[in-house]
Amino acid sequence: MPRPRSYLAVDGGGTKTHAVLIDARGEFLARGKAGASNYLKLGVNEWTHTVYLAVENAIAQLAEPPEIVRAWIGTAGIETEKQAQEAHASLCHSLHLPKERLCVTNDAALLRAGMNGPGIVVIAGTGSVVHGYATSSQNTTSSIQVGGLGWILGDEGSGFSIGRAAIKKVVSSQAGPELGGAVLTHFRLDSREDLLEAMYSPEFCPYHPATLSRTIISLAFDRQNTEAMDIIRDQLKILADQIMLAFAGVPGASHLILSGGLATQKPYHIMLLNLLQQNGFPSISTHIIVDAAEHAAEALRKNQIEYGYL
């Protein structure tokens, strides 16, 4: 008896990796998770292991391993054809897939799947990036990127940048008691000196400030804390400017897609959309995609992707 046919998509980000399997009718089969899978940070070997683990965790939930008809891996940190080719070769070997069945791109490309016409893709989670996708008269796709330079040089409007801004206010003694207390409580610390020391400890990683972002969002929107609200607004103003830059480079853009752990939170994306409107951003079709992997798996099934684009 032949194995069941399935379509696999993996969304790899700065915090976690999601793998989703659907069947030939589009029915959800299984989901697997693993840790962070930013390609630039991990390198090809550790990245391959992380993606493989997420896929295996999904397959382990099924009674028998399915036949993977097509697979699409979209991951943060892949920005060049060379990186995509290196990752593709490694993962084909690891997953035992013929090369023609596997596509490897950056994570923003997952969200473009099924987009009818030019548009803008925004990811705001642990990190952030804005991509503009244009279609030429020859019906080929090109892309431009604004932001997405990582936690050292960018990631404006992301969980990391929001958390870092709050931490800076606390360690510089500029935070009020509610914001300061919330930040110290989040990290289970007693003083700003302890917080500063923790941020420069050998165990520090960009994920630590990013974990604080949900606390800041709750302070801002649930408790109406003005300091927290200012932090979020300042970061979103920069992200809105990046979206406007991408929009200017994509003639006729008719879609705006938002995704990522922060962008899918309603108060966050409402504020972002309001800032865009104030900047003169036109009223175009806007979509909030909560599950990029499931979205991409369905696009694979419907053959709505262009293999090879980043």
How does this structure look, described?
The protein has helices at residues 39-59, 81-95, 107-112, 150-153, 159-171, 177-187, 192-199, 207-211, 213-221, 226-248, 266-278, 292-301; strands spanning 5-12, 17-23, 28-34, 67-75, 102-106, 119-124, 128-135, 141-146, 255-259, 285-289. The chain is an alpha/beta fold and 310 residues long. The strands form two sheets. A five-stranded mixed β-sheet has the order 3-2-1-4-5. It has a five-stranded mixed β-sheet with strand order 8-7-6-9-10. The protein is globular and about 65 Å long. It starts with a strand and ends in a 9-residue tail after the last helix. 46% of the residues are buried. Residues 136-140 have low confidence and may be disordered. Belongs to the eukaryotic-type N-acetylglucosamine kinase family. One of its GO terms (molecular function) is N-acetylglucosamine kinase activity. InterPro entries: ATPase_BadF, ATPase_NBD, Euk-type_GlcNAc_Kinase.
